[in-house]
Amino acid sequence: MKKIINSADTFVQDTMEGIICAYGDKVKLLNDDFRVLLSNYPVQDGKVGIVTAGGSGHLPVFLGYVGKGLLDGCAVGEVFASPAADKMMDMIRACNRGNGVLCLFGNYNGDIFNFRMACEEAEFEDIRTKTVLIKDDVASSPAEHAEKRRGVAGMIYAFKIAGAAADKMMSLDEVAEVTTKALNNIRSMGVALSPCIVPKAGKPTFTIADDEIEVGMGIHGEAGIEVRKMMTADEIADTLLDRILKDMPLTEGDEVSVLVNGLGGTPLEEQFIVYRRVHQILSELGVSIVMPHVGEYATSMEMAGLSVTIFKLDQELKALLLAPGESPFYTNGNK
Q1: Could you give the domains of the chain?
Q2: C-alpha torsion sign, points 324, 101, 26, 267
Q3: Which of 47, 84, 107, 313 has its CA 20 to 30 A from that of 179?
Q4: Looking at residue 334, what is its pLDDT?
């Protein structure tokens, strides 16, 4: 295993300390605890808090979206592991400004269990919380069992919508409602060309031949729906978009945002080649694209591959998407 680290045991702490060294004017640790990251941007009194949590190894998800018009806080776990419930509670407490906290996170058992305990403790302190689960990965479960789907790169759009809604001083119920509406209009699917190596494991999360590609894998190396021989960029785009559009059909005149997301080891050039084909297909359908995202937004260490996310917009969701949002790892200020 070759990694530019000091040790597997200090990987997460060293990463967090590096982020604070670089961006301490924008984000901060809670009481010097590297497990809880908070926004350092000015916040209006009474704003609903927006928080998430998740394992390390996916930068910029999850902590990379702590900022202005996005998340207020993130609890940080070990690589691919949920943070502890007490760290989630510390975060919820720190992000509560009197009008409640929305807990917005991926549909993974560890995060669900620990957030449930944290929210129960918050209730004892009279902090109102609501939970919205992110379930955008169409490959992980069929439509009739969509409640079992994993949360993947579509969470970036969810963070953006929830953060913008909170900045508009919507109530906790209203923020949860509009975020849920957004997630009902978000679908993602990805492919993997190679595995990644978790530092403490020291070995690949899965194996795949040099001439093969896994369709529909998860961001932790969970099995996809099939393994194929390597495809061209256009064939990959066609495969992913076909599955997404069967699950969420689009018609002429629709507006969407498109996110092509690199998983950590895929050059931007290759991502733009895939986006080119997605743009072509949607244009032929008469579908307009608003504020496209191309780059690394939700990675899996050094995994080679990418995912495509489609976010179907209405006027309310479009306005929230276009509202200002900024973190050390994300900005839509030039859109």
Answers
A1: 11-183 (3.40.50.10440), 186-314 (3.30.1180.20)
A2: negative
A3: 84
A4: 47
CB 187 within 8 A of CB 135: no
Helix, strand, or coil here: 239? helix
Residue 216 burial (CB count, 10 A): 22
Query: Alpha-carbon distance 72 to 233, whole Å?
Result: 37
The one-letter code for the residue type at 187 is R
Distance of CA 201 to the CA centre of its chain: 24
Strands 129-134 and 27-30, by their bridges, are unpaired
Q: Give the C-alpha separation, 179 to 160, whole Å.
A: 9
Whole-prediction pTM: 0.97
Q: Are 302 and 59 in contact (CB under 8 A)?
A: no
Nearest alpha carbon to residue 278 among 254, 299, 262, 294? 294
Say what the pLDDT of residue 220 is.
Answer: 87
Q: Which one, of 240, 242, 235, lies nearest residue 259 by Cα? A: 240
Closest CA to 306 of 274, 276, 282: 274
Cα 82 to Cα 131: distance, rounded to the nearest angstrom:
16
pLDDT at 53: 98
In this predicted structure, what is the pLDDT of residue 221?
Answer: 81
Q: What is the pLDDT of residue 297?
A: 97
Is 58 marked active-site? Answer: yes
pLDDT for residue 333: 60
What does DSSP assign to residue 128? Answer: -
**Active-site option among 145, 220, 279, 293:** 220
- pLDDT less than 50: residues of the chain: 334-335
* CA–CA gap between residue 135 and residue 315 (Å, rounded): 23
Report residue 276 CA to chain centroid gap.
23
